[in-house]
Design a protein that fits this description.
Largest sheet: 9 strands, antiparallel
Structural class: mainly beta
Oligomer: single chain
Strand content: over 45%
Length: 445
């Protein structure tokens, strides 16, 4: 009898369990999720982390997720997702993004509750959002910090004695109890929020001047626009390099503006001559050239262009020749050796008649005791001059053949000889018979 009662209890328990599971898994029952916003949500500021307390329940079907979504207009700009395993109260935060040019207005905050049968309940709140009016900002430039005082609505400035260039980012303090510190830095050649990459502020001269920033428009100053060659503004590559692509004519006088210490810069004699009056003249044949101003090493790198590409050497010897290898570098080997790095390749100056030139000073732009570089058809790996396509009659420089101490086409200094320290050597490559028959001459000036 006891055994029969036990079996009956087991059967009844199974039926009850089956019925309970069937209720949950019955997809014909959509359920009835409900949302109750339990804390007051009245206003917020851009940059806030807005707290919420939501009562979530469904008496029929288990819950799945609670989502808080923020919309600026039709665009969802922020979302927080919370797993809802049981009925109850759920606390969370949603970030109110801080963007450029977004005026004070009303955003839309939606709470979306979903059960395991994908039935959704939404609660929508109109949320007035305002831009913080910070009492001050901070300019962080390396280890130095400068307070930027408020000079008007959203407008700030730090007026100090600054050098010509100031690289730094700006940070705004957390506003209110729910605010977050906002940073403004440099990305894609513009100021944006949420990054700390340095903004390249620059002025025409060192001394006292104001660095300004507007937290609504992200307008800032000063950004010197006077880095120019022949009235063409140089485009910023990074903090130390600016470039411009120019159509230049042989013998053309160059005008360089905005570089206050230009007299201290190294001027490449292959591309420019400097007269006694200080005037700079373009030396190579006419054409399109990219000029890159390197403010760290204080020199101009010049490279021949065709359209948006670097010039390559053609079969008939026209075009340009490039140098890659060791023991050579402009403005000096010590500060900027080329090495076997194609991006560092030196463009030889095209001087006309399919001849190309590089001027080097022993102990400065070329090593005096040993060299090991070669000539290439392009800025990078690919076509190059070897022992079968390059010859020289020089008694100082030899062309490697793979068996004489240098790989094929690599240049070396003849055994027992060295370059004279501080002497100038002009390497000229004549490709007038085509790139299969080039001849190198080396002349000491």
């Amino acid at each position: 009898m006891k055994k029969q009662i036990y079996l009956l209890c087991m059967i009844l328990s199974g039926v009850l369990l089956f019925n309970a599971c069937s209720d949950d898994d019955d997809e014909s029952n959509p359920g009835n999720p409900t949302i109750e916003v339990k804390n007051q949500i009245a206003t917020a500021q851009f940059g806030d982390s807005l707290s919420f307390n939501i009562g979530a329940s469904d008496p029929e079907v288990p819950l799945s997720t609670l989502k808080a979504r923020l919309y600026f207009g039709e665009e969802m700009v922020s979302e927080t997702v919370i797993r809802t395993k049981t009925n109850g109260d759920y606390n969370g935060k949603i970030f109110i993004p801080y963007y450029k040019d977004i005026p004070n207005g009303t955003a839309t905050l939606k709470f979306v509750l979903q059960n395991i049968h994908l039935t959704i309940k939404e609660e929508t709140i109109n949320l007035p959002v305002t831009r913080p009016d910070y009492p001050y900002l901070t300019l962080v430039a390396g280890e130095q910090e400068y307070r930027m005082e408020r000079t008007g609505l959203y407008q700030y400035e730090a007026k100090k004695s600054f050098p010509v260039k100031v690289s730094g980012y700006i940070k705004a303090p957390a506003a209110g109890n729910a605010g977050n510190e906002i940073t403004f830095g440099w990305a894609d050649n513009a100021i944006t929020q949420g990054v700390t990459a340095n903004i390249p502020f620059s002025n025409s001269s060192a001394g006292e001047y104001a660095i300004t920033f507007n937290t609504l428009t992200y307008e800032a100053s000063p950004f010197i626009i006077a880095y120019a060659i022949n009235d063409v503004i140089l485009e910023r590559i990074d903090d130390n390099n600016y470039k411009a692509d120019l159509e230049l004519t042989k013998g053309q006088e160059m005008t360089i503006t905005g570089i206050d210490n230009i007299s201290d810069w190294w001027i490449d004699p292959d591309f420019f001559s400097v007269g006694t009056d200080g005037k700079v003249t373009f030396v190579p044949i006419s054409g399109k050239y990219r000029i890159t101003a390197n403010f760290e090493k204080e020199y101009f790198k010049v490279e021949a262009m065709t359209g948006n590409n670097f010039v390559t050497l053609q079969d008939d010897g026209s075009g340009v020749v490039w140098i890659i290898g060791d023991n050579i570098g402009k403005p000096s080997v010590a500060t900027n050796v080329v090495g076997w790095e194609p991006n560092n390749a030196i463009c030889m100056a095209p001087i006309g008649d399919k001849k190309y030139q590089v001027t080097l000073i022993a102990g400065k732009s070329v090593s005096a005791e040993s060299i090991n570089f070669k000539f290439f058809h392009q800025k990078g790996w690919g076509g190059e001059f070897g022992a079968s396509t390059l010859t020289t009659d020089s008694d100082l420089i030899f062309v490697g053949d793979g068996n004489n101490g240098r790989d094929s086409g690599n240049l070396g200094i003849v055994e027992g000889k060295t370059l004279t320290l501080d002497a100038t050597y002009v390497f000229t490559l004549d490709v007038s018979k085509g790139k299969g028959e080039a001849k190198l001459t080396v002349e000491q000036k």
